[in-house]
Amino acid sequence: MITLRKTTTLFASAALALTLTACGGSDSNTESSGDTTTNASSPTGDTSPSTDSSEPAGGDVAESAWLATFKKGIPELEGKSDDEIIAAAKKVCDDFRASPDAATAKKIVSGLESDLGIDSMKANLFIGGATGRYCEDMSTKFLDAQMGG
Asked: Which UniProt keywords apply (predicted)?
């Protein structure tokens, strides 16, 4: 029964990862293109860069959508800053990339449980989204490691 529950949780995590990847799979480390937008509130049609406060500092709308999805799906993240969530997601990738095995996968899950104050199911959902956003090449490897493969 435990194995079935673990398998179901992992597949649910994978499904969420695919959903979150659809919100934007580009790496936020890429430089912005420097495009300018017309400032509609300017009577002269100013083409200075937009300063819309709804966008993150880097102007990555996909990352904002990714963060909003996580904060909505994992309510415990509401009290965390965007930087904390992004750092935790990137740490998942860095740690697993350094040692892609079952022991590391287990350590990452327990680390997220204590660092973010979430249960193991939500930690697995977070991992699915983190790997989908920041290290897509590791998503399947992480799942395999958790399944003991």
From this structure: Signal
